[in-house]
Amino acid sequence: MKYILTLVTLLYFSSCQAPTSKQEQKKGETSNDNLSLLAQQVKDEMLRSWQGYKQYAWGYDVLLPLSKKGYNWYEETLGISPYDAYSTLKVMGFDEEAKEIEAYALAENWDKDVYVQVFEVNIRILGGLLAMYEYTRNPDILEKVRDFGDRILPAFDSPTGIPYHSINLRTGETAGNKGEGDGTVINVAQAATYLFEFGILSYYTEDPKYYQAAKRATKAIFERRSEIGLPGEHINVETGEWVGTPWHHLQAGVDAYYEYMYKSWMIFPDREIKEIWDYSITKINEYLLDEHNGHTYYTIVDMHTGEILKRSVSLYDAFFPAIQVVSGDFEAAEKNQQTWDWLWDKYGLLPTRYHYGADTVEYGNSELNPEIIESAYYLHQVTRKDEYIEMIKKYWKDINECCKNEVAYHSIKDVRTMEENDYLATYFFAETLKYFYIAFAGKDVFDFDQHVFNTEAHTFRRDSFDPGLARVRLGYD
Ligand code: DMJ
Q: Which domains does the chain have, with CATH numbers?
């Protein structure tokens, strides 16, 4: 039966690629039948890719799908792909596959003599484990989450409360990544993207220490804002001084700082955090917004003067329409998404960095990142406009055309040549395929209004968190 379904969906997909089908498809004509077939197709592709990972890279962090082997970020594996894949497998109903990952997580011993990047393991491993606890309510999983949280928490023990870049999971010593530097200079996203996971960890362990550490780090960044109200990009965690160029933006290196102010407040209504968001969004709109050649960009400005320093954007910034629409600024969200969609059409995928001032690609690579799909999904859920589901259908078609291979999918070295890159980012499992699936599967399968996602798209039900208990367990007023 499974193979028949696969064949049917493959046939459907081939018909989607015929040039005539696009012309015949009128705006607003997306039928539920078509979307169900696409949802099934994404599921089939998730299973196929996951089996590819298991066959060639099980036990490694990342699948290299062209050379058919695994790759580790560090000298020891952390098994990042399984933690990232877990919540997507659950959302799709692959319970047996998910159970294997639960067993893997339970057997894991985090007493590893390895330095890990605090930001990355927080969003991928801690986030993935917390979602696992959400789904299983298994106290042994909660112990695993607590153990992992306790191993990264000492990174926040700096004079400013901003975490060091990396920490050794066994010894608790802090450092730079892979021995580069001493870990004292980090970017704003690495400094302050913890409210969400650490809040959930405090909620479930009933110990406020995690949320309080995350909140102290977020406030430490906010309190160091410039005379015009903007933070910088890199900061010294010991002196609290901004380091390097005076750039500010909402791009990679800053992005999730803003994302978590709003998302954590959605489940943990801490008034102080909401005030920081309200202030920050005003400043973003005042200084970062740049209308240029008929498109809307959020750009790079001088943190002290607001002067535009470089008219350049990165594909990570495409997370922002999602936050704009969920926080109620529909008009700005729609204009912003139109820009990303225009850029996608220009290359058939988003390049990592595009200099819109000079109309040139700065970094042409793509790791099939999720942000543009995530924002189109949020916009479709909130506005119900068909144009957003049409965008998602196009993104799915293009990704399949450029990047599907025998084992799974692969990244691209340059969107101008579509040269293949032997790498499948772990967030392709966590985010990219999940957003495609829930966009096509619809509200009956996954109710957007009842969920909130961490920045790696690990899913949490909003009603898991009682506001009264949250106040006590996280320790806010
Ligand atoms: C993901 O790992 C997270 O969403 C992170 O916050 C930044 N973007 C990547 C995927 O592009």
A: 33-471 (1.50.10.10)
